[in-house]
């Protein structure tokens, strides 16, 4: 059978047998208006074939990666990844999150809240690490979901994640102006932003400082990933030194009695846990937002010299170090002031504001927060460019975005495009999304990756061997998610009477534990990772699923409205463009234009 006949056969019979269907020419769906009209008429058939089409890991590492042309340079080691993880997580938002969690929920017990949140972040990081070690490509969660649940699920989550990156980066860049002003004693919003009469409120303050910061970082990450890592390492080291200074100042000038004594005992309870276990866990849900950023490290997997060793150390090590820093910061702040006297919006600055001769500490905090913003922006922009690069490789976005510059070995096109887009938003738009205030897209991706690890271990398929029936695993994932959702709804909505809420929570928790235990006993694993795997399967990813469902339930209505809007917009893009571009790209692959699909290690990658 010749190639044309094979393509026609594949198109008629869908994705059976792992065959590739397509029109046989890259871009043929968009060659003319007539061709596009014919493509739209075939949309239901193409969506049915492509939406659940899962790519083999070997294809992601060879045939799909080859669409970028030049390879990214494998120049990162575990210490680079630890530095990138620290830079991505420890931003300005931690100052706000600590104050709010202490004042509103946990009191001095916020130290335990940070420890719990750090453990939960570590569980989620384990799920990312298993994928990143087995499939060291730049796509992060997009690639992991594409090889597990198919193209549509990966595209919707990836599109939401990139939009969240762009909007939050624009907001963070504008907040850099305010923190830099605090560091030098200037009212930056009024002095450094240019008002433009006639524009609507919220779009009438031009921030050239924010634009300059974004463009400068964009140039840096386009030039070299290794040099960007070095710059991040230097800035992160100085930022951590600022944080350690604040911690030491807090312990030196603090009072241990503030850990158990409120400022107003007549109106506020005392003790280390003034609001009990519920306050500690509510505080953990709030401060967990300060750990967002470690996921961007997984997008560096394609540029890591020894993935099997460096990625587990880099991702897990950064989470552990950040947890220690956060716990010390929380303890330091709790000693400076009683929990009910802490300013929830500026806890550290407020603690020193009334102390004679200590007003200069506010300037130090502003300088440290400014550095934290720079490192967070750099890591986030590195991550978002690699997400977009791999989305371009997959064929669902223009291939131009996937190109890797042969001289710099970086995805210059994706970096420049997102840098300009983010700078345009930051120039005019006042976005009230702080750096570490989690967005629903990020949590949803964490939830999906944890499910994907379980599915891949217990179903297998592709290069992992003959797949087992997916229904037992899918039934478990659905049942466990419903149990986690029930627990979350009871936590939020059950009457405050102690007996009622406690009983319902215990019942939901017992149901969740029983579901995992039954699944572990009845369904054997279909695949065991060769190099590194999540320990305690399926308990660890199940705990990550449970946590992310709980946190998703704590978000407000506007978050779901934004997520729904982005998802509908992404679905329209997929139906009108991406599914047809993907169909064409797979047709080119079937015609032999892309190369082989065997799983390979490139020359610079060592185990």
UniProtKB/TrEMBL annotation:
Keyword Transport: no
Protein family (similarity comment): Belongs to the amino acid-polyamine-organocation (APC) superfamily. Cationic amino acid transporter (CAT) (TC 2.A.3.3) family.
Keywords: Membrane, Transmembrane, Transmembrane helix
Name of one Pfam family that matches: AA_permease_2
Region annotated Disordered, chain positions: 1-20
Subcellular location: Membrane
Domain Cationic amino acid transporter C-terminal: 532-582
Location (main, coarse): membrane
GO molecular function: amino acid transmembrane transporter activity
Name of the featured protein: Cationic amino acid transporter 7, chloroplastic
